[in-house]
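ok so i was messing around last nite and threw this chain in just to see what happens. nothing serious, just curious
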Amino acid sequence: MAAKPNSIQSWVKHYLATHPPRSKSLIVTVFGDSLLPSLPGVWLSDLIALLQPFGVNSQLVRTSVFRLTSEDWLEARREGRRSLYSLTESGQQRVEHAYRRIYEHPPREWDGQWTIVILSKLDISADMRAELRRELEWGGFGSVTSGVFLHPRANRIHLDQVLRRFRLSKDVVVMQARELDGVATKPGARLAQECWDLRLVSEHYSGFLRSFQPVDRLLDHRLEPQTAFLVQTLLIHSFRRVVLHDPQLPAVLLPNDWPGDAAYNLCKNIYRKTFALTRAHLLANLEASTLGPLRARPEFPHRLGRPGEPVI
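result:
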């Protein structure tokens, strides 16, 4: 059995060795957590420097940025021999949707209404249908049967963006429904277990708790800005990988021992301890020409239950 890390630096080293992040996904985390919503972009050289402590070399950063550009996540603006990378409109929409799912605690109350999406008889290719299904599932929808998806509290803005992006706004049926009073029906909690793999999501939340519970204690010691940035980025990177597979169902549809709330609270506690120092690290290491005023756009919610505080 491995010894428990006795310092936050040893925890970071151990975590990177046992959970090495994929460079492309890590870049998305850095853009979403550190660069949005207040920075217009980042110079490639600055991004390489930010990712070097994670064990990501310059060639991996360049390759990952190239792939993210080809996948319409990022776009580049050339200035001489330098490139400033920022999110595309499509990439920003995806990041903003993820932003809300990561940083806002999902409400657990429910009015009993289901949003239902019906894709039957769509005249589209199998590949496009599969991609549309992935987008709906990423938005939290569960599959009832082939071509029929539902969610108890769907994000209408994201759903509309998906349908517009696929140019299917007039071809997909979207409706709301609730259980019919006076008719015996399948319990909602049982339906939820059939439509979503809640057991797997629960296991991932439990793994997150095991990995990051030591961090909350270790952060009580003196913390350097770069270490705070490393911890916060790994925290959000790990939490993002779990929460974006969580349909964020109301309490009445969840198992009694659901670990999602404990994971959210742990993430919030750690984030509060790293936020200011992470901001200081970015101010010290990003070129002044990309910083601008460090103010969050008003349409972004506060992060992890912290209203009124600035967001970098």
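not much to say yet. The two ends are 39 Å apart (CA to CA).
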